[in-house]
Structures are given as C-alpha cells and as structure tokens.
Design goal:
The protein is built from 5 helices and 6 strands. By secondary structure, the chain is of the alpha+beta class.
Length: 141
C-alpha cells in the first residue's frame, strides 16, 4: 500500500511541473572565415516543446531571406543550446567589419555582457561599435 502511495505521489508531483520546464532552445549561425567580407547569419528558436522544433526554427531564421549573403546562410547550423538560459549576439552593424560575438548565460545581462566582450575581441579598432543585436531567453529568465 505504501509503494502505491509513493508512486501516486510521484505522478502527482510530475503532473504539477510547469510546461515551461520543458522549453527547448537552440542557436544557429553561419559564420564564414571572414565575417568582415561575408557577414554572419544567426537565428534562434526558443521556448519550444521539442529540441527538433527549436533547432528547425533557429536554422530557418538563420537562412531567412535578406538575413545575410547566400554563401553565409549556407553555413547555418545549430551551434549552441540555451535551455533555461539566455543567449545574446553582438556585432558591429557597419558593413565590412569583423566584430562579432555571442554568448549563453544564466541571465540576460550575463549573456549580453559576455557577447560584447567576445565581439570587442574580434572587432579590432572598431571595438567601440559593437552592439547587442539579439537577446533572447527561454521562459525561465
């Protein structure tokens, strides 16, 4: 009788877990050997019920029309997950510049701060032009 109670208690607890706990997220990017020459393509999929749906959305966004040159979009692939976390992407918005960085962090501010550090590390003399251009969190953040 005690085992039956424990099983029922465990099932009741599992049912009460919010659906957001199942949120899946993915980050896709097409990063060529020269960001300055070809740009970069990025896409996110977050708060999805399945990993495949999150990945598909991220790659779809990465390859969206007008998002980057076709040669860069061809490189789009999932490169990170940010389940229960945040993602930020920073880059220098001027054409022909190398500044680009991204990061996953426990909070939006942590992800944004590290993305800026990563962008500035690649931007050379244009480090001051880096901007956070994408900042997404799943439902927990």
């Amino acid at each position: 009788m005690m085992k039956k109670f424990l099983v029922l208690a465990a099932l009741a607890a599992a049912i009460q877990v919010p659906s957001a706990a199942l949120a899946m997220s993915a980050f896709a990017a097409g990063i060529p050997s020269s960001v300055a020459d070809q740009g970069v393509a990025v896409g996110t999929g977050y708060n999805y019920a399945s990993r495949v749906d999150a990945e598909n959305r991220a790659v779809q966004e990465c390859k969206a029309p007008g998002s980057a040159p076709e040669s860069t979009k061809a490189l789009c692939m999932v490169i990170a997950y940010f389940d229960n976390e945040c993602l930020a992407v920073a880059f220098d918005p001027a054409a022909g510049t190398p500044g680009f960085g991204w990061s996953v962090g426990a909070t939006k501010s942590i992800a944004e701060s590290q993305a800026m550090v990563n962008c500035k590390a690649t931007a050379g003399a244009r480090a001051g032009y880096c901007e956070v251009r994408v900042s997404d969190c799943d439902t927990h953040n």
